[in-house]
Specification:
- It is a single chain.
- The protein has 3 domains: about 100 residues, no CATH class; about 190 residues, Rossmann fold (3-Layer(aba) Sandwich), CATH 3.40.50; about 60 residues, no CATH class.
- About 35% of the residues lie in helices and about 15% in strands.
- It is built from 14 helices and 11 strands.
- The strands form 2 sheets. Strands 3-2-1-7-8-9-11-10 form an 8-stranded mixed β-sheet, with helices on one face.
- Helix 1 packs across helix 5.
- The longest helix has 17 residues.
- The protein is globular and about 75 Å long.
- The structure holds zinc ion (ZN).
- The site of zinc ion has 8 residues, from loops.
Length: about 425
């Protein structure tokens, strides 16, 4: 019998179809109930079947080849939310190709630890772990009114598209573009700057609390807003994976300065020149760079990581060190979509428990316990149950009632709902 999973077509159309469907998973509100899809219990059962199968071909024999499922319907067992328009392809082979990608993704996931499931288990882990790695993303700053990058409507990219008419807003962070035309970045920089009034969110204060209790090993963050500093998190404990606005460097001589030195230029949208570099006139073309960009040499660039720029090799070293010490991983406010940050969890020992806390669930990874809701509320509730007093910004959550419900069909996924009192808004 031919292995249908190996027969997929590698056309770019099929590839982009697969990418769209894989991307569709955590964007909520995208569900189309008119699809003939597997139910949640059926999906969970099918995925367990795949994991216990001797080989993927056995799984295919038991499902498609025995005519219990079409490839199209089987695809819906893998936690995807494709739009109907996307999921209306004539060629059945396209669904085989998608299924191959989904099966590969499923088998690549870490195996969940069966002993940790409840809120009490999470509290136990917090109380008894001493080397916690916290991975954070934009979701921990949105309660401060700072937009994340990728949310529909409210995200920064979406705003730049709608309000500023940028077709490809990610271009702002393109290194080549910056070197060619730094004015482009500077003209939008005021929209990227975090508020400078020393704020941080209750979630930042929670991470500080872990530090005070001697439990924080490292906070790896994707955020460039530098709020961790405001919360009092030690620079020793913090890895700003994508850099931050705290410092800036000259693109030519690499002179590093405090971010304050260029903050006015960023606000005014005027390109900040390096004070150390000589005037750009008369400089030799830089070797190896085609069509040398002499006209823009000596420009200051905030030390945030642009597309096309390498991650600091020190960070990888730190991860290698932490790998031997970590005893709990908290993933907070990130859907882990941006590589290489999203690969961090794959580099940690899979037997170390992982707790996921975010607004929406993340279908391309498998965690031990998942808490969905506002991260500030989730963490306040966990502190409360752990008997930990709320400190600093977490005090804002003192009078917030939090309802916790187990999500239907799941054993370790909970929905937290905060009921904010009007006087605390
Ligand atoms: Zn310079």
């Amino acid at each position: 019998m031919p292995n249908v999973l190996e027969e997929h077509i590698e056309s770019s159309d099929v590839q982009s179809f697969i990418e769209r469907v894989l991307e569709s998973n955590s964007s909520s509100g995208n569900e189309d109930n008119s699809l003939d899809s597997c139910t949640v219990p059926e999906s969970l059962n099918l995925r367990a079947m795949l994991r216990s199968a001797k080989a993927p071909s056995q799984f295919i024999d038991d499902t498609i080849n025995s005519e219990r499922y079409t490839a199209k319907k089987l695809c819906t067992a893998f936690d995807i939310r494709p739009s109907l328009a996307d999921f209306d392809r004539k060629d059945e082979k396209d669904y085989y190709a998608l299924l191959a990608a989904l099966v590969g993704r499923e088998l690549g996931k870490r195996v969940k630890l069966t002993e940790y499931n409840s809120v009490e288990d999470a509290v136990f882990l917090l109380q008894n772990s001493n080397n916690i790695i916290v991975l954070t993303g934009a979701g921990i700053s949105t309660s401060l009114g700072v937009p994340d990058f990728r949310s529909k409507e409210t995200g920064l990219y979406s705003q730049l598209q709608q309000r500023d008419g940028l077709d490809n807003p990610e271009e702002i962070f393109n290194l080549e573009r910056f070197l060619e035309d730094p004015k482009f970045f500077y003209s939008f920089a005021n929209k990227l700057l975090p508020p400078s009034n020393g704020v941080c969110s209750p979630t930042h204060s929670f991470i500080k609390l872990l530090q005070d209790k001697g439990k924080l090993l490292t906070n790896f963050t994707q955020n460039i807003d530098n709020f961790e500093k405001n919360a009092g998190i030690d620079s020793e404990k913090l890895i700003q994976w994508h850099g931050s606005f705290a410092t800036a460097s000259c693109t030519r001589c690499k002179e590093k300065v405090d971010g304050d030195n260029i903050s006015q230029a960023l606000k005014d949208g005027k390109v900040a020149q390096c004070k150390r570099c000589p005037s750009s006139e008369g400089l030799k073309p830089r070797p190896g760079r085609k069509g040398s960009k002499d006209a823009v040499t000596g420009v200051m660039k905030p030390d945030i990581t642009f597309f096309g720029e390498d991650i600091d090799p020190k960070f990888q070293k730190r991860l290698e060190r932490d790998r031997d010490e970590v005893d709990l991983v908290l993933i907070i406010g990130t859907s882990l979509k941006v590589t290489p940050f999203s690969n961090i969890i794959h580099e940690l020992p899979s037997q170390v428990p992982q707790i996921y806390i975010s607004r929406d669930h993340c279908s391309h990874n498998q965690f031990d316990i998942e808490f969905l809701g506002e991260c500030d509320a989730v963490l306040a509730e966990l502190c409360h149950r752990a008997g930990w007093g709320l400190k600093d910004e977490m005090k804002k959550m003192e009078n917030v009632q939090v309802k916790v419900e187990l999500c239907q069909h799941y054993q370790s996924r909970y929905r937290f709902k905060a009921e904010h009192n009007a006087e605390h808004e």
